[in-house]
Amino acid sequence: MSKTNILREIVLRKRNQSKNTKELQINTTNSIVEGRYVKIGGIDQWITIRGEDRNNPVLLFIHGGPGSTYSIFSPLLRSWEKHFTIVHWDQRGAGKTFRNNGKDGSGTITFDRLAQDGIEVTEYLRDKLSHQKVIIIGSSVGSLIGVMMVKLRPDLFYAYVGTDQNVPDPQNLFKLTVNALRAVGNTKGVQLLEKMGSDQSQWSRKDFDKRNRLIVKAIKDVPNMITDLILPSMLSSPEHKIHEMIDIFKGMSFSIDHLFDELMNFDLKKLGMQFELPIFIFQGDTDILTPTELAKAYYDEIEAPHKEFVLIKNAGHLAVFARADQFLEELIKRVRPLAPTSLS
Q1: What is the model's pLDDT at position 344?
Q2: How would you write the chain as a 3-class SS string?
Q3: Mean pLDDT by 10 residues, the chain (344 residues)
Q4: Given this model, what pLDDT does residue 196 score?
Q5: How far is residue 226 from each of residues 55, 257, 275, measured CA to CA in Å?
């Protein structure tokens, strides 16, 4: 989406919000449509729950960013709500949770803290919706938190679905990023990245942000995560006012300030490669931000009672929102049979 189209989205904001409000209406007899603060980890955290039949399996999204709430994408997942109860959770330091608590009230944010919060959210959902377990979808940085959660409490989950699966591998990530920039002819970007060096543990916040901006600009022929997905969804969300959109960006900056050092040194494999539950990775076939090649290599080493790797076609990062229909088809075919429909 060009800058002109983004400006058009701003101009048409009210119309698009009204359209989404109508599309998001659910009138079935056993539905649930709820957004509220819930005491999680000692602070009030925002949770939205939507579905046409609360007996359907529960899908809990663990958003990426850090601090990039996915509740803005609810209209893109409206068709999912016939088959699943969809839960979006604004993590500590993110979105409406950040707005409610501010910097002083958010506490210290670590990956361990977020994983523990996620466990509490899962237990809350299990009790509220009377389901024994839920299905977890971890996206991007949220995939690191999701793996931590299923390692801590596999008894709470029917399955783990990783998408935009983040596999920190500094040396290979550096090579793949350089290759992606060369493929689109970004010589200056290659030079800048080489100047930064392959040891990301030595990178500054500015280096990290530069690398991400270079990658976003290198996205070609598939939906761009910023201009085609995040900004239009944010601007057309009927659940987010202007000041709340500003808070999303503030929360992202706040969260990365807290998590940056951990993220730069995160070793996913140290969490263990053996799992006690089914593992699925649904990866965009051209993801260059969390490279598909690294996700597949990680998947190949995993040991689990059942595992599957699925490519989401013509998708890069945020494949779940770029190709929501294909993603849903794969979930219904491969994951939904693992979770009983009736209340347990």
Answers
A1: 43
A2: CCHHHHHHHHHCHHHHHHHHHHHCCCCCCCCEEEEEEEEECCEEEEEEEEECCCCCCEEEEECCCCCCCCHHHHHHHHHHHHCCEEEEECCCCCHHHHHHHHHHHCCCCCHHHHHHHHHHHHHHHHHHHCCCCEEEEEECHHHHHHHHHHHHCHHHEEEEEEECCCCCCHHHHHHHHHHHHHHCCCHHHHHHHHHHCCCHHHCCHHHHHHHHHHHHHHCCCCCCHHHHHHHHHHHHCCCCCHHHHHHHHHHHHHHHHHHHHHHHCCCHHHHCCECCCCEEEEEECCCCCCCHHHHHHHHHHCECCCEEEEEECCCCCCHHHHCHHHHHHHHHHHHHHHCCCCCC
A3: 60 85 92 97 97 97 94 96 97 96 94 98 97 97 97 98 91 83 84 83 84 82 87 90 91 94 92 98 93 94 97 95 97 95 52
A4: 85
A5: 34, 21, 33
HSE of 152, CA atoms in CB hemisphere, 13 A: 18
The rounded distance, in Å, linking the Cα atoms of 16 and 42 is: 36
* Partner residues linked to 85 by β-bridges: 58
Burial of 166 (0-12, 13-18, 19+ CB in 10 A): buried
CA atoms within 13 A on the CB side of 204: 5
How high is the pLDDT of residue 327? Answer: 98
For residue 4, what pLDDT is reported? 60
Angle at 149 between CA 147 and CA 155, to 5 degrees: 115
Predicted pLDDT at 275: 98
pLDDT in the model for residue 5: 59
C-alpha distance from residue 195 to each of 175, 178, 183, 204, 208 (Å): 13, 12, 19, 13, 13
Q: Are 176 and 293 in contact (CB under 8 A)?
A: yes
So what's the pLDDT on residue 279?
98
Q: What domains are there in the chain, each with its CATH number?
A: 32-168+242-337 (3.40.50.1820)
Is residue 111 left, alpha or beta, with left meaning phi > 0 and alpha meaning psi from -120 to 50?
Answer: alpha
